[in-house]
Design a protein that fits this description.
Elements (H helix, E strand, L loop, with lengths): L2 H11 L1 H24 L8 H29 L5 H30 L4 H33 L5 H20 L3 H6 L1
Helix pairs in contact: 1-2, 2-3, 2-6, 3-4, 4-5, 5-6
């Protein structure tokens, strides 16, 4: 049995775990790329940062994505243009800001930061994260909702997410103090 067939068998047998593991992989790869190829190479590699991002993928992104996209597909089945446009609009106007709050909140919590730090991060970076998302996810989700089978949605999202996670990793790990200097 090939890798693709094994993945699909695992997806059918344990969809939540498979999607969580797929998100773990996507977020881990995105942070590794960000730290090694995008950010200041003078800083040493931060393995705990990669663990934080990967654990977010596993615990939050994969699980909430499984339920959110499953719910969306159950309420709005099909691939008619109006359905696809509605799903993209819901994803980007409702889910996207919620996801951003979860992302920054998770990082804040696992780093032991205060609620004031979280509020500052949301004020300074949520709009950037949401608007940055539009450039990537509006076209990506148009393809997703029109052509990707529901069971494969999170794999497709995580494939795109690897590149997008470079941006999220950078933004999520940029300190409030760094932003005040700019």
């Amino acid at each position: 049995m090939g890798l693709w067939a094994r993945y699909n068998a695992l997806l059918e047998a344990q969809p939540l775990l498979t999607k969580a593991l797929t998100s773990l992989t996507g977020f881990t790869a995105g942070d590794i790329l960000a730290q090694n190829f995008v950010e200041d190479s003078d800083k040493p590699y931060d393995i705990m940062r990669t663990v934080r991002l990967g654990s977010f993928g596993f615990l939050i992104h994969g699980t909430t994505g499984h339920y959110f996209y499953g719910f969306l597909d159950s309420k709005m089945p099909g691939t008619k243009p109006i359905t696809v446009a509605s799903k993209v609009a819901i994803d980007q106007t409702i889910w996207n800001p919620i996801f951003g709050c979860m992302f920054f909140g998770y990082l804040n919590a696992v780093e032991g930061k205060s609620m004031d730090d979280y509020v500052s991060k949301i004020k300074q970076d949520l709009q950037t994260a949401v608007m940055g998302s539009w450039a990537v996810w509006v076209p990506a989700h148009t393809i997703n909702f029109a052509f990707i089978p529901p069971s494969q949605r999170l794999l497709y999202i995580n494939t795109i997410q690897i590149g997008y996670n470079v941006f999220l990793s950078f933004l999520g790990n940029k300190s409030v103090d760094e932003e005040k200097k700019e």
